Amino acid sequence: KKWLPTQFRKLSHGKSDKLPPVEKSLISKKGSDKKVKPNQQEKPPEEQESSTVTSVVQQQQQQQLEPEDEEATAIELPPPMKPIQDTASALSGAAAVPSSSEDGATGTANKITKALSLKSLEEPSSAQPPADLAEIEQFVKAKVESLKYLDNDGSGSSSAAMAAIGGLVGGGDGSSGTSGPLALNGGHTIAKPAAISPQFSENEAADENQTEEQGIEDILRKRNYALRELVTTEEAYVNDLSQIVNGYIAEIRNPASTVPIPDDLKGGKERMVFGNIEAIYEWHRDHFLKALQKCVQNPYELGPLIKRSERKLHMYVVYCQNKPVSEHIVQEHMNYFDELRLKLKYKLCLGDMLIKPVQRIMKYELLLKDILKHTLRAGLTEEVPGLKEAMHIMQVVPKAANDMMDVGRLQKFEGKITTQGKLLLHGPLYCVEGASSSDKNSYNSQKPKELHVFLFEQNIIFAEIVGKKTQFTSPNYIYKAHIQVNKMTLQDLSDQTNGNRFSLCSIDPQRSSLSYICTAPTPELHNEWLNTIHEILKTQNDFLKALVSPIAYQKELTKDS
């Protein structure tokens, strides 16, 4: 029992002191006196007498310690701090509390010091206080005496107590530079802000600068990784082109090849299979790849490099225009190209190899977008305009290449597509043929048919769609009709009843009956078609005016400006 704390000791008669409810589980684990009583009854009388004497002595010792334990447990902590809105008023209020004497101030400080001491809660109080506590009390008393004479308004007691507490908690001095709490009347405290030294501020600023530098280094490292990815994928792409040129094309042109070329592919027809892929390969191998490798060490040269290469990149537009014809020929002679693949020991078939240039021109935009993102985050603003212009080029060229692939699938058109001018817009429209804007009955009696419409600078071509676009195949387009742009009228027929519609009518005397009422799938596409056709018609009219009366047209331009 001696090793137990005073709160858990039991009296000899078997009754225990009242304990807090939380500590009941600890008391219940101790042995009770009921187990001891049978053993006492079995002892001889001499042992019983000795045990009785021992219990009486222990009971007297317990009674002597009990008042001190009650006194120790009766100490309560100060109430919790309440939020204080006005610090100045609270401090002035505390200073205004009158003090009776110097001993009263010292006693208050001693009580608070004793309340803050953990030893007063755990150990029984004795006649002589511990050495460290005596030193603290002596220090507090000295503080109270020194501050009493500095207090001019008679509030030295409370001020000294506050200063003493601040010295105890804040590190030994009651000055205002400490960060310890100040005690106010009512037991509340105010946490005083710690003063930040200039050296600490400089160290903190240095740490922030170091963190910022590390962040920029990480961003530049990521940008360098994106540049290396651009170069690595370019090297793999050049290797793929090399397999086509130095493998398939060289074997087809080899007269001593063990795989004979079919008669249908002789006479230059094999050139339609590969298009201008040899020119693309030579340019990438000899110029573009080497320039990209230099950009890893000099990233600022990437944007200007793409700008200088814009004209060369249009080789992909020509390649994509020939792509539908190439796909058709490869499909017809699949067995022959498979034999070549087995001889060359290639894994991919020729059709998968020929799609590589199309995939590559589409991927440049994604790689440049990643590089531009890291450049912006790194704050390299001088490189941003060049990269944005490079991204714009890599958006225009793939779109033109994709458009020309669709044009290349147009069949049975009388004339050359290349003489129709620039392709301005193309896409599916729901059209009713032969219906004019005034003949609403004709429009309502016919079911709109989905046609693919190509708008060039010289003509607008209507074509029927054969097949559907999937992940591996694209539809073909069969020519149906066309209207010359300089002999065409446009009228917007949009209303709430019939939705977004516009009519295109030919004013050519030889094709006066040709007209279409077209409906776009969405309002946005409807507006895009209308605006594009309006612009091209305006350009055509201005051109005619300049041809007929150039002086009047020049005056009109001068007047508008």
Characterise this structure.
Among the domains are: 212-407, Dbl Homology Domain, Chain A (Up-down Bundle); 409-558, PH-domain like. The chain is built from 21 helices and ten strands. The protein has helices at 24-28, 36-42, 45-73, 87-95, 102-116, 119-122, 131-148, 156-170, 198-253, 271-274, 277-295, 302-308, 310-313, 315-332, 334-344, 350-354, 356-378, 384-408, 440-445, 523-548, 550-560, and strands at residues 181-183, 189-191, 410-411, 423-433, 449-456, 459-466, 476-484, 488-492, 502-506, 515-519. The strands form two sheets. It has an eight-stranded mixed β-sheet with strand order 3-7-6-5-4-10-9-8. It has a two-stranded antiparallel sheet with strand order 1-2. It starts with 23 loop residues before the first helix and ends with a helix. The model is unreliable at 12-53, 63-74, 90-106, 111-131 and 149-198 (pLDDT under 50).
| Distance between the ends | 109 Å
Say what the CATH topology of the domain at 212-407 is.
Answer: Dbl Homology Domain, Chain A
**Could you name the CATH class of the domain at 212-407?**
Mainly Alpha
Spatial extent as radius of gyration: 48 Å
Q: Which structural class matches the secondary elements?
A: alpha+beta
Strand order of the largest sheet: 3-7-6-5-4-10-9-8
CATH H-level superfamily title of the domain at 212-407: Dbl homology (DH) domain
**Shape summary:** extended
Q: Poorly predicted ranges (pLDDT <50, ≥5 residues)?
A: 12-53, 63-74, 90-106, 111-131, 149-198
> In the CATH hierarchy, what is the architecture of the domain at 212-407 at level 2?
Up-down Bundle
Proportion of beta-strand residues: 5-15%
State the helicity in percent bands: 55-70%
